[in-house]
Amino acid sequence: MDITRASIRRLISAALIALLGGSITACAMLGKSGNQGIEKDLLVAGFARRLADTPEKLAYLRGLPQRELVARGNHGAGYYVYADAEHCKCMYEGGEQAYRRYLANREIKTQKAPGGMR
Predict the structure, then answer these.
(1) Single pTM value for the model
(2) How many domains does the chain have?
(3) What span, in angstroms and rounded, lies between the C-alpha atoms of 5 and 21?
(4) pLDDT digits 0-9 by tens, 6-40
(5) Would you say residue 46 lies in a domain?
(6) What's the rounded Cα separation, in Å, for the pair 21 and 110?
């Protein structure tokens, strides 16, 4: 079997492309599943999902901090917002009670996780 340098290079290039493609796909899946976990936790805690179903709403959504739970004020009443203009094109809104439930549920999940406190 006569293996030339060119055929070895092609084989290595093909292997690297396959490896890189698999890594990119895995990263994209991890990022998406991570967002879905947070979104599910927010819904369970009582946050309301608001779709950006008009160009104006989407523009407003893009102006918010992305994929961060941030506190906002509304005439003295606090509420919390989680915006995701890229994946779900939606935001989650919740009041103090929903936020406290979210934190409590997250604490319980942390304690149940491998290596978490028991």
Answers:
(1) 0.64
(2) 1
(3) 24
(4) 555 564 454 434 433 433 333 333 344 456 799 99
(5) yes
(6) 32
